[in-house]
Amino acid sequence: MARKSTTVANAADGTAAPKGPQAYRVKPGVGWIDGKRLKAGQTEVMLTDAAARFDLQHERIVEKGKPDPKSWAKPAEPSGEAD
Question: Which of 10, 64, 67, 75 has the most CB atoms lying inside 10 A of its own CB?
Fold first, then answer.
């Protein structure tokens, strides 16, 4: 399976430029993203593609502006961390 590119083309000269952090929405009930505890009531995070990859694969976050994954209809699984 081919890897997805994490760069975007620069419109001015056609060269690839790395993407900066982008906004992601957090699944309700998730307390940790990218190994960091979220603040109470936090619903968005800014992450680079690399930092977001794990949580995207586990559907804990979704790009801002995209629809909720079907798995979000179920309650979030406990993170395994005690409060």
Answer: 64
Q: How many CB atoms neighbour CB 32 within 10 A?
A: 14
If one counts the domains in the chain, the total is 1
In a domain, 13, yes or no: no
The pTM (predicted TM-score) of the whole model is 0.67
pLDDT per position as a tens digit, 2-44: 555 555 555 555 555 567 899 999 999 999 999 999 999 999 9
- Please indicate, yes or no, if residue 79 is contained in any of the structural domains: no
